[in-house]
Specification:
The structure holds two protein chains of two kinds. Chain A is α/β, with parallel strands linked by helices. Chain A has a single domain, classed as TIM Barrel (Alpha-Beta Barrel). In chain A, about 40% of the residues lie in helices and about 15% in strands. Chain A contains eleven helices and eight strands. Chain B folds into two domains: about 120 residues, 3-Layer(aba) Sandwich (Rossmann fold); about 60 residues, no CATH class. In chain B, a hairpin with a 2-residue loop joins β8 and β9. Chain B starts with a strand and ends in a 26-residue tail after the last helix. The chains are: A alpha/beta, B alpha/beta. At the A-B interface, α5 and α6 of A face α7 and α8 of B.
């Protein structure tokens, strides 16, 4: 056992896991996180806490993670390279683990251009792959980048995650990038939101044929479409996103008031397909600012009750 | 070369607003090549400032000259006799020029007329792009001949990130995703192994992070 987290135990037991996502507030209001926890507790196995996602300043992912854990929800703390150098990163890894964090998702981070502080200086001392490698070294070798050693039993016991985007360009290289993350030491990966199921199947087949799915747990990222407008926006304006016309047409086929329902229906269909794809170990449900719908989605998908190990 | 761009006219007019007599000094180095601060641009700026001040009924006297280089003490010395004659010296070199001039002539008031932008090259007539960040430890041969430090918006050594689309960077559609170029080139060359190998952490001590840098060549010292 690498970290002893709930997520790790369930994945090792071969359960079809479901992870959620929680964005901390743009204030010091802990109650926002506690409120979101209500819709996630018992419905998902672990929850990503975003780290200033889209470069918008929010309560820190460490603080958000701890509040979630106080509410009985296991956190998967996101850590980006945009805002910290190797000194701060290692320090945060040690601190987070000391405070009870057991899962960490290692990301490069969105460029600050997209956020509320585009004038900021960025860091990117490490990239996401080097971050994975660093956390793994700290955990498995009990060593810091400097070579400084930790006494046995004091290493940060973390289950290491990463994000992968099967759809960004160049597509042919994407599976090799997954291989690279595995070589760096990742334990599980969560994918970008998937809408193009055929392309995802092709990606997974490649990964499966290369033996990669035996080395890493792949959680397929899914996000329910709230409306036709959202689907169109995702199709046209979000880099690295592949939304086929089929999704647009399904939403078009229902009246406006029923679009969010249809969005959830599409998602439920996706979950059934994903369950059958070899190498898919679970789903990562990103119901962004729609946490209150998580319980009904998980229930309708037939994924309740959540297993315990 | 160092690529610069002239500051907006309003900013320069504000710099010289109290001056009656100024000297504009161009440079025959990089900024001449990138059409920002050579003899021609000195002439254009001088004429533009004269005209603007005439319009305000507040004429300004401007002398013009262009030095061989402004980043070499020996070429600055030529200003010795003249520096004291002006209210302001406006340098059209990269930021090294005005620093050299103001250090050499502590009494002089020196302003930069250019913004020093990056180290790069011309891509087509009138277009320049950044190619180097002077990290002090060149490794472009490991990346298909491209520099991910300078040309990736996140300086990723193990790119690309998930944001590239159609070969363009998510930060700006005008920026080529350098990782797209690297991957395509190395895949075409069959050097997939170079791509799957995890590139180690960079040692930034040779870059600006190690403090301002200096090269001492004992063999050249007199």
């Amino acid at each position: 056992m690498k970290s002893g987290s709930n997520l790790e135990k369930l994945l090792n037991a071969g359960e079809f896991v479901i992870t959620g996502e929680c964005g901390p507030p743009r204030s010091a209001d802990a109650s926002v996180v506690r409120e979101k926890a209500k819709y996630l507790k018992g419905y998902v196995d672990s929850v990503n806490v975003t780290d200033n996602q889209t470069s918008v300043v929010r309560m820190s992912s460490l603080a958000g993670s701890l509040i979630l854990q106080e509410e009985g929800v296991e956190a998967n703390m996101q850590m980006v390279c945009r805002d910290r150098n190797r000194i701060a990163i290692q320090s945060d890894v040690l601190g987070a683990t000391a405070l009870g964090i057991r899962n960490m998702l290692c990301l490069s981070g969105d460029h600050q251009k997209f956020g509320d502080h585009p004038e900021a200086k960025n860091v990117f001392d490490l990239d996401s792959i080097q971050l994975i490698q660093t956390v793994k070294m700290m955990r498995d070798e009990g060593k810091l980048i400097s070579g400084q050693e930790m006494a046995e039993g004091t290493e940060p016991r973390l289950f290491i995650g990463a994000a992968v985007n099967p759809f960004a360009d160049p597509f042919e290289y994407r599976v090799y990038r997954l291989a690279k993350k595995i070589a760096a030491g990742v334990d599980f990966v969560q994918t970008q939101c998937i809408y193009n199921m055929d392309k995802f199947k092709e990606y997974m087949k490649q990964a499966h044929d290369m033996g990669l799915t035996e080395k890493v747990h792949v959680l397929a990222g899914i996000t329910p479409m709230k409306s036709l407008g959202m689907a169109r926006y995702m199709q046209k304006s979000v880099p690295g996103m592949d939304v086929p016309d089929e999704i647009i047409n399904r939403l078009k086929g229902v009246e406006k008031g029923g679009q969010s329902k249809e969005g959830i229906n599409i998602l439920l269909d996706q979950i059934q397909i994903l369950k059958e794809i070899p190498g898919v170990a679970g789903v990562h449900l990103m119901a962004i600012e729609w946490e209150e719908r998580v319980p009904e989605i998980v229930e309708a998908a037939g994924l309740l009750p959540r297993p315990t190990v | 070369m160092i690529v610069g761009e002239r500051k907006p006219l309003d900013e320069i007019l504000e710099m010289v607003k109290d001056a009656k007599k100024i000297l504009i000094v161009g440079c025959k180095g990089c900024v001449t090549v990138c059409n920002a601060g050579g003899t021609k641009e000195v002439g254009i700026l001088a004429a533009t400032l004269r005209l603007a001040r005439l319009k305000e009924d507040n004429p300004i006297e401007i002398d013009e000259m262009t030095l061989e280089r402004q980043c070499d003490p020996e070429y600055i010395e030529i200003l010795e006799e003249r520096a004291a004659n002006y209210d302001i010296i406006l340098s059209m070199a990269c930021s090294i020029g005005p620093q050299y001039i103001s250090e050499k002539f502590p009494e002089a008031i020196v302003y930069p007329a250019l913004n020093t932008c990056f180290m790069g090259g011309a891509q087509e007539h009138g277009v320049w792009a950044e190619f180097c960040q002077a990290c002090g430890d060149c490794k472009i041969h490991l990346f298909g001949g491209y520099c991910p430090i300078a040309r990736c918006s996140k300086s990723l050594l193990n790119g690309p990130c998930g944001g590239s689309a159609d070969g363009k960077c998510e930060v700006d559609k005008e920026i080529d995703c350098v990782w797209h170029l690297i991957v395509n080139k190395l895949m075409k060359q069959g050097k997939l192994d170079q791509l799957t190998q995890v590139k180690p952490l960079k040692n930034w001590t040779t870059s600006r992070d190690g403090g301002p840098r200096k090269i001492v060549r004992e063999d050249l010292k007199i």
